Amino acid sequence: MRRWKGSKVQEENMERAVLDKSRCGWWKSAVFYELYPKSFQDTTGSGTGDLQGILSHLDYLETLGVDAIWLCPICASPQVDNGYDISDFCAIEPSFGTMADMDELIAESKKRGIGILIDLTLNHCSDQHRWFRAAKSSRENPYHDYFLWRDGTPDCPPSGMRSVFGGSAWTYVPEIGQWYFHQFAPEQPDMNWENPKLRQELYDVMKFWVKKGVAGFRLDVIDQIAKEPDKDITINGPRLHEYLRGISENVLTDEGLVTVGEAWGADTERAKRYSAPDGSELSMVFQFEHIGLDQEPGKDKWDMIPLELPRLKECLRRWQQELYGCGWNSLFFNNHDLPRIVSRWGNDKEYRVESAKMLATMLYGLQGTPYIYQGEELGMTNIRLPLEQYQDLEIHNMYKERTERGDSPESVMQSIWARGRDNARTPMQWTAGENAGFTTGTPWLPVNENHTVINAEAALADPDSIFYYYKKLIALRKELPVFRDGRFTLLCPEDEQLFAYTRDTETEHLLVVCNFSGREASFDFPAEYRGAECLVSNYKEPSVQTIRPYEAWMLIKKDCIIPIQDYLGLGNEARMNQPGTVGFNWRWRLAPGQVTDALADELMALTKRTGRVNWDILNG
Asked: Active-site residues: which are they?
C-alpha cells in the first residue's frame, strides 16, 4: 500500500476569513448552515427550540466557520407543517420568542460575520392567515383572488390532482360553494401569483425583512408559484421566470442580498436561467436530482433502490460542467426534509466517522455553495421510533395510505426509518447528558439514544472529530480560488467504488479521491500530482494507490508562472534557490525567441536539482 510522501498543509491557527456580504457573489466562497429552530436549543424548558437558544450557540457556529445561517421558518404559524404554514409573514412564532429576540439574533450574528437567511413560503400560506380567512368568507371579498378557487359540487373535485402529503389537492368550502387548491396540506392553501396585488404584498413582506437586516432569503418550493392546476401544471409554469424577475427587480436592489430557490423540478437548462450570473432571477438554485437516484423511477421517495455510484457521478458531472460560467448550484446531502446522509450513503456504524468525512470531502471539492444541516458536522444519524412517536404529518399520511392499500406495516416502517423527514428533525445533540443538553423539559421529538457518543461537547474536545474536519474544509474553500473557479473533470466514471475528480484553474490543480465503499479500491494515481500538497485526509496518511474503506483525500498542485525576465534578472545565488516552494510547479512565461539552448539547459538543470520534473514554457 503506497502512503503519501508529499507535503501536508499546516492545520494549526487557521484564521477564519470573514466575507464582505455587501459585495455581489460573496456566497460563491461561502458555506451556509441550515438551522431548524424547533430542534436546535430550548432555553425555556418547553421542549421546543427557540431564538434565544440559537443566540446561545452563535460562538459554536463562528468556531465552525460558517458564513450564513439559513433559518427554517420562524414566522407565526399553527405548526401543521412545522412552520411551513405561515399565518403572519411579519411576526415571530410565539413559541420561538419575540421580534426583539429576532433583532438581537440578526445583530449578534453580524458581529460574528454571519448573515441570516429567512425561509419564506411564497407559494402558500396557512389557512389561518388573515388573507385566507377573508378569502373564504365571500367570493366578492378583495382577498378572494389571492388564492386558487374553482367551482364545483361537494362530491366532485375540479380534478384528480393529488397533494404531496396524500389525498386530494382540492378542499371544498361549503359557505361559498368552491374548492381551493393546495399542493401540500389542506391547511396550506396555494396563493395566486397571477394577481398583481398578491405579488406586491409578498414583495412588501420581503422588504420588511431586508429592512430588518437579513442577508437574504431561502425561497421554499419557488418553482411552483406559476402553477396552472387546470392543466395539471404544478412546477415550472409558463410565467415562472417572469415572477422571479419581478422579485429581483422589486426587492433585491442591494447587490449583496442572496436568494436560494428550492426547485425540485430543476434541470441544468432551467437552472441556468434561475441562477444566471446577471442576477436577474436568483443567486443560486437548490435542486434535488442527485437526491432521487436511490428512488425507484416513477415512484415515491419511499420506494428505495440501492445507489449506483456511476449514476451519481454522471449526475454531478453534468451539473458541474453545464452550469460552469453560466449558473450557480447549491451543494448538499442533508436538509430538514431528508434523512441523515451518513445513514443513507455512508456507514453509520463501524465507519461512521470515516464515511461522514468522506462524504464531506467529495461534496466540498465541487463548485457551488455548500450547506451544512445542523448536526451533519457531528455525524448525527437516523433514528428508529415507533409510529406514534413521529410528529411529521407526511409520515402518518403515508402510513395510512400504504397500509390501507395492502402494504405490510413492517415494510412501511422500514421506509419511514430510512426516508422519514423526522430523521433530520431530532433534537441537536449538544452533550452526553439528559436530553442531549437540548432541553430541561420533554423534547417535542425524541432525542437519538446515541447522543451519549455523538455530541458537540465530545466533538469540540477531539481535534480529529468530524467537526474540525468540516472547519478545515470551510477554511480551505475561502483560501483557495480553485474551489470557486476551477473546471471540473471526472475521473474513472464507471468505477463502482471510487468517486475521483479534478478541479483546475491556470495555477491551481485539485485532485479529490473518495472511496464510497467499505472495501479497498485500486486507484491509478496521476503522475503529475507527485509532490503535491495534501489538503485534507480522513486517515492519518493518505494511501494513493490502494484506497482504504471510506477513505478520502484532497491534493493540490500549484503553478507559479513568472516572466522569464524576472528570472534572468536574479543573481546567480538567487537563481540557485528558484523554484523553492514545496508543492509548486514553476512555469516560465517567455516571449517568442527567448528560448535559447543555454537557457533551456539551465532550466532543465534547475528542474532536476529541485525535483520539478513537470515544468513547461509558456509563450506570452
From this structure: 220, 262
